Amino acid sequence: TGGYVRISSQSSVLLNSLCVTLPVLKLLVASVQNHLALFGDSGLFTAIFCCSLLEKYESLNMALYPFVKISKHILSLCIDYLSSETCGCRIPVDFSSPKLLLSLVRS
C-alpha cells in the first residue's frame, strides 16, 4: 500500500516528482523550481522564504490580488539582489584548496 519512494540529493528531482493539486502548494513548488532553474543551488532558502510569506498571507486574511502584486515585487527585488555582485550570499570558493572548502562546510 502507498506510493513509490524517490531518493535523491537534488531538490529539483524531488520537486519534479511531486504531484500537487492544491493551488498554494503549486505556487510553492513552482517558486522553488524557478529559483533552482535560475540559481542552481538547493533552493532551501527560497522554500523557507516562500513558506514564511504564505503563512504571513494566511494570518493577515489579505485579498489575493494585493498579495500576488506584493509577492511579485518582493520576488523581483530578491532576484535582483541575488544576481548582483554585492550579494552577501555569494562566496568565492577556490576548489583547489581543501582547507578553504572544509572551513566553508563547517560554517
TrEMBL record:
One GO biological process term: cilium assembly
Any GO MF annotation of the entry: unfolded protein binding
GO cellular component: cytoplasm; kinociliary basal body; nucleus
Domain of life: Eukaryota
Signal peptide: none
PANTHER family: MOLECULAR CHAPERONE MKKS, SYNDROMES PUTATIVE CHAPERONIN-RELATED
Protein name, entry field: Uncharacterized protein
Organism name: Micrurus corallinus
